[in-house]
Amino acid sequence: MTQERPAAIPDTPLKRLEDHAEFVTRHIGPDNDDIGHMLDTVGIESLAELIRTTLPPSIQDESGLDLPRARNESETLERLRAIAQQNTLMHNMIGMGYHETVLPPVIQRNVLENPGWYTAYTPYQAEISQGRLEALLNFQQMICDLTGMPIANASLLDESTAAAEAMAMLHRVNRKSRSRQFLLGPGVLPQTVDVVRNRARHFGIEVIEGEPGVLLEDGDFFGVLLQFPGVDGNIPDYREIVSRAHEKGALVAVAADLMSLVLLTPPGEWDADVVVGSAQRFGVPMGYGGPHAAFFATREAHKRAIPGRIIGVSRDAHGRLALRMALQTREQHIRRDKATSNICTAQALLAVMAGMYAVWHGPERLTRIASRIHRLTSLLVAALEPGGIVPESDNWFDTVTFQRSGEEIDRIYRRALDAGINLRRIGTNRLGVSVSEKTTRAHIATLVAAFTGSETAIDLAGPDAALAADASALPSAMQRCSEFLSHPVFHRYQSETEMLRYLKRLENKDLSLTHAMISLGSCTMKLNATAEMLPVTWPEFSDMHPFAPLDQAQGYQQLFRELEAMLAACTGYDAVSLQPNAGSQGEYAGLLAIKSWHESRGDEQRDLCLIPSSAHGTNPASAAMAGMQIRVVRCDARGNVDLDDLKIQIEACAERLAALMITYPSTHGVFEENITEICALIHDAGGQVYLDGANLNALVGCAAPGRFGADVSHLNLHKTFCIPHGGGGPGVGPICVRNHLAPFLPGHKVIAMDGPHAGNPAVAAAPWGSAGILPISWAYIAMMGRDGLTRATQVAILSANYIAVRLADAYPVLYTGRSGRVAHECIIDLRPFKESCGVTEEDVAKRLIDYGFHSPTMSFPVPGTLMIEPTESESLAELDRFIDAMLHIREEIRAVESGQPDSPLKNAPHTARDLTGEWPWTYSREQAVYPDSALLLNKFWPPVSRVDNVHGDRNLVCSCPPIEDWIEEGNGSN
Predict the structure, then answer these.
(1) Is 403 exposed, middle or buried (0-12, 13-18, 19+ CB in 10 A)?
(2) Where is the Glycine cleavage system P-protein N-terminal domain (predicted)?
(3) How many whole angstroms separate alpha carbon 7 and alpha carbon 18?
């Protein structure tokens, strides 16, 4: 990865890049002429001058990025193909929460590979997210039905972190117990044990592993975690255990295999309090560990404590049925260090896929799939039994474990490996086998030969002579009797014609990057190029099991090494961990690295974290999760950290200062002049600097946090490095650290990782997190190259300043930095309009929908404002279209200020249905829905009017409404 250090290229014209970097000119929206016009508008000569006069001199880095030159799309894909082909694809029967599955092509092509689904933003603006919300509501309904619980979220990051969230929630809500002990039953996935233990340590919770039936007799526990079925395949009847736990004042969480619940009694029917797990095997590729949607289901009583997002049913302004994200006040930007979790990114795109898998198959075909998996497992057992090879347990669903001598286990494992099958080694004398949706009778025959050493072909293609037609190894008392997936949505779309139309119908209800720019400040909604997305579904990347032997994953290992080097070059840090599978998890992992470093030096008393008042809400939530105490540092009138208050806080911390968490550029959208001094003050006091990398799109190629004073940053690959937001996830949040923190990066207990950190506890279920989407960021960096990445930063900053200048006469720009400029985003202040005429930021946000735009970030970090981030990938024409819409809206505000009796601002957004009925307003239909003539060529129609958030929270319904409700309201989607 080492390259010659390039000479500084302060202002490279695009034409000089085109010979070897044609992708750069396609990713960056404005061309040379556009950039010239924008520079003139801002009042500056060149991009180089823009950077020199906007960034503080103390952080500017003109040495260039230590990266190769840009590759074009075909070169990049060819190189990635060569890397992918170093992975060896086997039939994986390892299990442990990851299984081979069949992704229905109709879902692959129309959801996973469809930018209408993967480029949408988190559905905070419900009126333009109704399709995604309905798909996620289907996911919640599926989870509720299969788990037997009344309420579910949509969704969490992976099974292991979901289990850790369950532990934390049970500790909060259990009013009957003062205990700080949490019991892990036998058979819990080893990666879950690792993640739960790590989380528990920082919450002051003691984790005890053992047999619940024994330990509950004399122990005092606030909660219990049970695995169902166990990692070894056993299916215990836990009903008595749950009853006994409740008698002893403990609450019970169950980590369940979703496919098994098609045939097994759901935990909700045996009185579990929480059910968690992964929806991966519902049509989502393994992807060497992710991304996959985890689920979390619980009792109604805990609906306001459940972590993650809940999709709820509400009404719009006309009383019609509408969906929304419910209970949004639980989000971290509101509750901060009092947040119930630091989870911010959900796995929305993957939850949509898993829910659609259930819609596509319905209960009958799901039952057929689950029954076939179980029957093939039983067929393997029956074929081995005559030779005296019997599993440890008398019952199973899809997994059986065998115990033999170490030498025999080694021979069996090697024979299976030679035949193309991965099994699970358990110590020296045990072997696990897990059957999946992709397992065939041929695989079973191969396994029988591997176990017996017989060279004779075994015919399993005919009738199962040794297996009765009704044979079942499921305990009779635990077989499912209740119905599931009875809602019509799980029965209506099982022809491809109907499914295709349903997916398109939902897609058409949502605004995504396929329609318009999404100018969300601090969220960096930019181009996710098709070439970057293609490798995600290549089998060599998508079909790898995360616990496959490392020698089968050499392509992935090379991809990781190269991507880590790329990210280190972009940030100036020394080491990288790719494990955190969300920005929030990156924050948590970075703080744990800081905490462990202090402990290694004997400074266990350092437990205070300073956080500016402008910080992202996940910052204080993450610090609380890491077991740190939080002190808030004030910001001054210009949005910068108040240095005087910082010094006071540092002095007050004395020897307890652990870290400062700071976002740079600041959450207020400016480059703080004193950042290097701030870092020095923290270091002089013995602390560490955590620099939130959410705004790295304003730094790459121009300044490097690892070189101007920070010790650790998380990077949102779904922002700066082009992994799509997917309607609210997947996210990836790797952390970059300086050398002294490298020994404290996350490790993994299942897969041996390289480096001094290998034995450290994990923060996520898979060793390299959501590895399956890392080729996206690798491809982006490869195609942009060292000069293109710098150019992207320059144009992102130019675009934000262009918008700020053009809007400044209409809307006050709240914060500016050097030379009166902003960073990559700007905040406009709408509070004066609320005072002058009652128009709010919400009114402007909803009116923008009529103009075909998603609103900028609303009321964060300052209530009553909009934070705008245009990114580098939006063209000048699109920037001007957005600016024109905002200027038109300003005129509409003036009309209200002048006494207009009613305004489209107050009634926005306007739907097509509004046009067909009585028109109750004094303004015209044309002004309502075609306020700009350009909309006559391309109009996005919101499916619902303004959604009533209060009604939805007061009347929380988070399962699919009856089909009659949809029909009565005229939505007709289901």
Answers:
(1) middle
(2) 26-451, 491-762
(3) 18
Burial of 972 (C-beta count, 10 Å sphere; 0-12/13-18/19+): exposed
Q: 466 pLDDT band (50/70/90 cuts)?
A: low
CB atoms inside a 10 Å sphere around CB 249: 16
Please, which residues bridge with residue 298 across strands?
A: 151, 274
Side chain identity at residue 100, one-letter code = E
Given a contact cutoff of 8 angstroms between Cβ atoms, the answer to whether 713 and 688 are in contact is no
- Cβ atoms < 10 Å from Cβ of 489: 23
SS3 158: coil
- How would residue 419 be classed by pLDDT, with cut points 50, 70 and 90? very high
Whose tokens are 């808030």? That residue is 632
Residues 6+ apart with CB under 8 A from 26: 529
- The sign one gets for the Cα dihedral 252, 257, 262, 264 is negative
The sign of the dihedral angle between the CA atoms of 639, 641, 642, 645 is positive
- Cite the DSSP H helix spans in 387-522: 406-418, 441-452, 496-507
CATH of domain 537-780: 3.40.640.10
Q: Phi and psi at residue 563, in whole multiples of 5°? A: -65, -40
Helix H or strand E segment including 101 = none
CA distance 21 to 207: 53
What's residue 754's pLDDT? Answer: 87
In sequence order, the 6+-apart residues with CB closer than 8 A to the CB of 69 are: 20, 21, 785, 786, 787
What is the second-level CATH architecture of the domain 363-478? Alpha-Beta Complex (3.90)
Q: Which phi and psi angles does 197 have, rounded to 5°?
A: -60, -40
Question: Per the structure block, which two tokens stand in for 69?
Answer: 């030159």
Q: What is the pLDDT of residue 4?
A: 37
CA–CA distances in Å: residue 126 to residues 131, 236, 484, 876, 970 = 10, 43, 28, 28, 18
What does the alpha-carbon distance between residue 790 and residue 21 come to, in Å, rounded to a whole number? 13
Integer-rounded Cα radius of gyration of the chain: 28
Residue of 871 and 3 predicted with greater confidence: 871
Do 832 and 865 meet the contact criterion of CB atoms below 8 Å apart? Answer: no
Q: Which of 381, 430, 435 is nearest to 401 (CA)?
A: 430
Separation of alpha carbons 665 and 677, rounded Å? 15
- What separation in angstroms does the CA of 107 have from each of 117, 283, 361, 373, 377? 11, 9, 12, 22, 28
Q: How far apart are the first and last CA of the chain?
A: 52
Beta-ladder partners of 274: 253, 298
Q: Can you tell me the distance from the alpha carbon of 1 to that of 569, in angstroms, rounded to the nearest whole number?
A: 10
Q: For residue 617, what pLDDT band results from cuts at 50, 70 and 90?
A: confident
pLDDT in tens, 118-143: 999 999 999 999 999 999 999 999 99
d(CA 703, CA 236): 57
Region for 95 from its dihedrals, namely left if φ exceeds 0, alpha if ψ lies in -120 to 50, beta otherwise: left
- 3-class state of residue 685 by DSSP: coil
User: Which H helix or E strand runs over 707?
Assistant: helix 705-708
| Ramachandran category for residue 77: left, alpha or beta (phi over 0 → left; psi -120 to 50 → alpha) | alpha
Residue type, 66: D
Summary count for the chain: helices (H), strands (E): 34, 24
Question: What is the reported pTM?
Answer: 0.95
Degrees to nearest 5, angle at CA 691 with 687 and 692: 140
For the record, the structure tokens of 871 come out as 């990114």
- Per domain, the residue ranges of the chain are 363-478, 537-780
Provide CB contacts within 8 A for 517, sequence distance 6+: 525, 853, 870, 871, 874, 878, 879, 882
**Any alpha helices (H) in 102-158, and if so which ranges?**
105-107, 115-118, 130-147
Residue 939 pLDDT > 90, yes or no? yes
Is residue 828 within 8 Å of 811, Cβ to Cβ? yes
Peptide bond before 155: cis, by omega within 30 degrees of 0?
A: yes
From the number of C-beta atoms within 10 Å of its C-beta (0-12, 13-18, 19+), residue 763 rates as buried
pLDDT at 342: 73
